[in-house]
Amino acid sequence: MADSPFDNPRHVEKYADRVVQMVPAYRVIHQLTAVLIDEHAPVDANILVLGAGGGLETRAR
C-alpha cells in the first residue's frame, strides 16, 4: 500500500492552504455551516464532525 500523504509533515503543514485552492467556496461552506448550526441547533448542542481534513470546521464560528 502507498504511504499516505498525511504521513509527510510538509504535506500536512500545507493542507489548509492547498484545500482552499482546490475546493471552490471552501471557506464559504464553513461559514454557511456555522449559520445553519446557529439557526437550527440548540445552544448546548453537541456536534459530531465526521470526515478527514484540517479541522477548520471546528473553528467555523
What is the structural class?
mainly alpha
Low-confidence stretches: none
Beta-strand proportion: under 5%
What is the number of E strands?
0
Overall tally of structural domains: 1
Q: Based on the structure, what is the oligomeric state of the protein chains?
A: single chain
State the major sheet.
Answer: none
C-alpha end-to-end distance: 38 Å
Helix content: 40-55%
Question: H/E series, N to C?
Answer: HH
Let me know the average pLDDT. 82
- Summed up, the helix count is 2
Molecular shape: elongated
**Radius of gyration over alpha carbons?**
14 Å
Helix-strand blueprint:
Layout: H1 9-22, H2 26-40
Describe this structure in words.
This is SAM-dependent methyltransferase. It comes from Mycolicibacterium arenosum. This protein has helices at residues 9-22, 26-40. It has 61 residues and is mostly helical. It has one domain. The N and C termini lie far apart (38 Å).
Short description:
With 61 residues, the chain is mainly α.
Short descriptors:
elongated, 61 residues, 2 helices, mainly alpha
